[in-house]
Predict the 3D structure of the following.
Amino acid sequence: MSPMWGSVEQYSTIHWSWAIAIYLFLAGLSSGSIIVALLVKWNRHERSNSSIWDAMIKAGAVVAPTAIFLGLFLLVIDLGRPFSFYWLLVRYNITSVMSLGVLFLLIYTPIVVVFMLLVFERNVIKHPILAPLEGLINLVKSFHSYAKIIEYFLFVAALCVGSYTGFLLSALYAIPLWNSPLLPVLFLTSSLSSGVAVNILIGLLFFKSTINTESIKYLLVLDTRVILTELPLLALFFIGMFYAGGDAPQAARMALTEGFWAGIFWLGVIGVGLGLPLLTVIVALRSHVYRVGYIIINSMVVILGVLMLRYYIIYAGQIYLG
Amino acid sequence: MPKQYRLLYDENLCIGCQACSVACRVENSVPDNFFRLQVHVQTKGVFPNLGMSYERLSCMMCENPPCVSVCPTHASFQSKDGLVHIDEKTCITCKYCILACPYHARFVNPLKNVVEKCTFCYDTRVSKELLPACVSTCPTEALSFGDMRQKGSLVEQKSQKEVLVFPKAHLGTKPKVAFIPSRKGVKV
């Protein structure tokens, strides 16, 4: 029965909106693409005598810093008081995942920029505007013998950035759809998936001359495995909610059946994001016939699906409270 | 010695007049359409067996406040007396605390762009040994407020006598606002 007196406004406000959904997507994209670039660098080039800077690595070096800077910009302008954001850098609360995220990003972002400068060393030196960066590059190059250690460090930092966004939401026990220990795992796997897709896409579009079909095959196989992990993870995510206490079962039921966001979940996340790529793998990319057109469409579809997963989780979480 | 405040709300005495809510707005200049405190009034049951239910919604002043542990800048903090407050200077309005609060007690004040909620009127009244505005206004004395360490006080006596309900107790937040549930029940 409807209330005779009292406002429910405070229950139904969307406090974190599109900017946060896109930030979560971009942070995942950034960490996913650098993780994929590092995996290609480590696993595909031990034996290969082709250029060390494969198109996949170049793509990761472009996408990772761009995505994280765009994301951080959105994150700051979404604050009610954007010009007070410096308090985040001055005061830390180690029990707050947001503070931990700031620390991870402080480590991650500079290394990613250095990685980009190293990959595009020749281009940087060519441009007179970027010339001042030459000193920085030379400084970084003097640590060449530690390259592998720095790469491992970057890898771990990327894992932290890719998963902290999940912990950021799962720490809130007031919101049943977010308060799941599986959310960080789910976000990390979908980040990897979007990383594979964006690297292939950018590699094919801009760095075609250094494309290595072997590494594309390696990545497409990797992506199929990631998607096949994501589907059971999503199932477990909701099954876990149905067996949890409090408002969780009701929230899960609503999030899967009611309104616009249930449609986004079934059509967008499951259909477009996971179903279509699997179908493409089965139908078009079978028996290693890798056609460029299909691969490009497949990559865009995967990226769209990952974006919709973030949108779905952000909005449905705040709407379906059980 | 730190205080152990408690706010008691007796649903049996509440008549849903909203005087508490109005007093709160006036005392704290709460903008329209936002609530530090409200009492939801609902008609329950099936005609002719109808009953009214009253639900008070405000900050519960948790002993284990989820809003404080998630705040990245310590702007949301717990005072020595165990009350939860917001430091307006260091609040960046990231809204993380609003989402963390299971009681929907927090909101962004659109005039100041800062997160706000019930403070038990600490700055303007309680620190000066006065009762919170809602408590002093309530015409039926459905609200009582005080320090639980003060033996023999109204709050302490009522707490001893009555069965108390702490909202969403299963979350382990340990609220300092306690409810004396309606004894009438609702005929369905």
